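QA checklist item 7 of 12: single-chain prediction sanity check.
[x] sequence parsed
[x] length recorded as 282
[x] structure emitted
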Amino acid sequence: MFEILQRRPLNPTVTLLRVLAPRVARTARPGQFIILRVDADGERIPLTVEDYDREAGWVEIVFQIVGATTERLNRLREGDCLHDFVGPLGRPTETEGLSRVAVIGGGVGCAIALPVARQLCRDGAAVDSVIGFRTRGLVIFEDEFRAVSDGFRLMTDDGTAGEKGLVTDALRALIESGRAYDRVFAVGPLVMMKFVCRLTAEYGIPTVVSMNPIMIDGTGMCGGCRLTVGGKTRFACVDGPDFDGHLVDFDEAISRASLYRDEERRAHEKTCRLLEEADKHG
């Protein structure tokens, strides 16, 4: 069993958990993920490692409440335990040997982009970070990004925080100002990553994206996380989650990601009703 040491809401729909998992903490690296189960009968879900402390033995994960399992996960409190917490899985993000980079995060994807920015900063790269959200109330990790960035820009769709506009607006302005990036790292909604990659392709800048499709077993055997990259089938859990963004078939990935959206919504609504009834009856 894996004890929850800390629980911290980041915004109304996003929560951070610090979990005691010494074996995972010992070998985790930025870009990798874990698979957890809330209880013995629970669904397996993948979540990226946001931070870790090898000596203290904890791992931090961040999740957005979108379905039945994340609703149950959000109901847990400090001192409660998770049934399974398996990892680290996936290939770590390659950050070595880079001089200047841009890290682009969108929404809850900032929880994946932040550890990459941290590692790049430790490696001595000059880091420009651009993070984007719909509105002020959804902003997460602003201070943390500022702490590891040489340049930082916050974008919101409605202009209620930072600058009004899209992350691609800020990235284009940085490139056209003369920034010579060795690589761009983009993590966020599929549509955001697609248009970041279209932009960087114009300038010939290598771009890495982190893909988080449907995952079940985390070993590549189930095939649920398959993607088309460079015309070939790849599995995000073992070949990724990082891929060359200019080779990813984003239209296919977007189509597949929406397959179970209605079922996920109904499962979330049902779970909320059941949990509320349980709370009423003690």
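[x] summary fact logged: The chain has nine helices and 16 strands.
[ ] second reviewer sign-off
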